[in-house]
Every structure is written in C-alpha cells, then in structure tokens.
Design goal:
The structure is a single chain. Helix content is about 45%, strand content about 15%. With about 300 residues, the chain is α+β, with helices and mostly antiparallel strands.
C-alpha cells in the first residue's frame, strides 16, 4: 500500500532475507505497525523499541561502516524483523541509507551527538584553545568526560603524526583507569565512589608491561593525581604512548572534564612532558575553565 507495508507483509518480507529489504526500502514499514508489535516489550517508563533503535545505531562503528540486515541484527542483538523495521525507519528519517544490500549511517546521525556537545558548551569552549596548544607544542590534545567506567572523547585536535594504533575521535571510549584523563576524573570522585568503582574492576588486564594491574597500586596512583593536580602516564595503555592530563573546572570548582596532551615516547621524555608540556596544558585548561564558569586555577 502507498506509504507503508502491512504488519503481515513486513513479517513475510523479513523472512525472505536481505534482498527483500531492498524492495521494502521503497515502502518502509509503517511506524504505527512497528509500535504495535513492540508494545508488549515496554515496561513502565522503559521503551524497549527506543533501546533497540539505539542498539542498531551503535552497531555501526569504524570497523563496521556498512552492514547487511543480518549483520546489523546480530551486532545489535535483535531479531532480523526488528532490525529491518528499525533500519528502514532510520532510512525514512534520514539517519541511514540503503543501497539494495548494505545499510550505512548518514551524516544526520551526528545531530544526536552534537546536541550533547553543544548543550554542555564544552566543545565550543575547548576546541579553539586546544588548536592553539597543538600549534604551539606540535602534539595532539584531547578533552574527555567520565561515563561509567570509561572516558568519552568530547573534543580532539590531532597532529599529522599518529601516536596510537587506534583512531580516536569524538565519541571514542577508553577505560578510565588506563588513561591520564581517566585518572584525573577518577581522582575527582568522592572516596566511597572511587572505592566502589575500583572494587568493581576485578582483575585488570595488562595492556603493556607497564600497566598497573594491582588495585592498591592504582588507588595510590589516583591519590597522587588528586594531590598534585595532574596525571602522567608512561606507556600503560599502549607501547610508546605517553600522556599528561589536567582537570577542567566548572561552576563551584567541580571537575567537569579533563584535558590531555598525548605524545610518543620516541619524541618526548617524561621530564620534558612534565617540564615543558604540562605548564602549557595547564594554561589551556585554565582558559577552558574560565569559559565554562569555573575558577582560573
């Protein structure tokens, strides 16, 4: 029928495989039919359909930029029928595209993340001064916030020289306890909350021969960060990677983010990182803190 498919037709099409999705994209499943079929999954104020839709979006990443219907369903942990409805809804709304075999996200999906970035004001405040710092030091600079056990990158100015084996960008996540920015953010937590998080880590996997895998040693390292006001890491996350991080303060002196400079061990010694890079990084963090309504430091 024009503008949509019947619920029965949607179910039959889903069983016919990815080829059927190519035809269905010209007549997406009606949102009302999808909502009705998922209604029994909603519990109180929790909307299961929305959770599944977000899982489908997260199924795409740097290693999986294009997915078949089957792959998207598997990576999102949903049925093929549910994945089909959700993907076609994303196509209809402009958040995804379909080329008769593969689904891909479209640039419009960035609106979801940038709503957060622009809402906090941190990206706009940090990015210009971070650019100045990178031009001055010729090393990459990043800003991150704490989200659960991870840090999430909310601003980044890279250099042409790559210092990590993975590509970092806005939205990238890394374990907080393994990063200089993460330790700065963990150091700002109340003692009881920090103890709870450290206890929940369990066994810490070693990323390099320098990784702190002992919980007590990690607790002492974080306590040192709290005392000195910055974190220095030497090749704990990845061989060759050195970094230094400082806090960014908001109104009332609260720590709202962390700022770091990452370098390669072949270019910058730990002494140089502390003596030359750290003072410049502190100046940048103070500028961002002022812009965010925090103390100059």
């Amino acid at each position: 029928m024009p503008g949509g498919l019947s619920t029965r037709g949607a179910a039959v099409s889903a069983r016919r495989g990815d080829a059927e999705a190519a035809r269905a994209v010209r007549a997406p499943a009606a949102p009302r039919a999808a909502a009705a079929s998922d209604a029994d999954d909603d519990r109180g104020d929790f909307v299961q359909s929305l959770a599944r839709g977000l899982a489908v979006i997260r199924a795409f990443d740097a290693e999986h930029t294009a997915l078949t219907l089957s792959d998207a369903a598997r990576r999102a942990g949903v049925s093929r029928a549910a994945a089909r409805r959700l993907l076609l809804t994303l196509v209809e709304l402009g958040y995804a595209e379909f080329d008769a075999r593969l689904f891909r996200l479209r640039p419009k999906v960035l609106e979801l993340g940038f709503s957060y970035l622009h809402g906090t004001g941190l990206w706009g405040a940090a990015q210009p001064v971070m650019v100045e710092l990178v031009e001055r030091l010729h090393e990459s600079c990043s800003a991150a916030v704490l989200d659960g056990d991870d840090i999430v990158y909310v601003a980044r100015v890279p250099t042409r020289t790559r210092i990590m084996s993975i590509t970092l960008g806005l939205g990238s996540r890394l374990p907080a306890h393994l990063t200089s920015m993460g330790r700065v953010l963990l150091a700002a937590l109340p003692g009881a909350e920090l103890d709870r998080r450290l206890a929940a880590l369990g066994t810490i996997a070693s990323r390099t021969e320098r990784t702190l895998t002992d919980i007590d040693a990690l607790r002492r390292a974080i306590a040192k960060v709290r005392t000195q006001g910055f974190a220095l890491l030497d090749q704990e996350l990845e061989p060759g990677l050195r970094s230094v991080a400082v806090p960014v303060h908001g109104p009332g002196g609260s720590v709202i983010a962390a700022l770091n400079v990452g370098t390669h061990a072949s270019r910058v010694t730990m002494e140089d990182l502390k003596g030359r890079v750290l003072p410049a990084l502190k100046e940048t963090a103070q500028a961002v803190s002022r812009a965010m309504g925090g103390a100059a430091g």
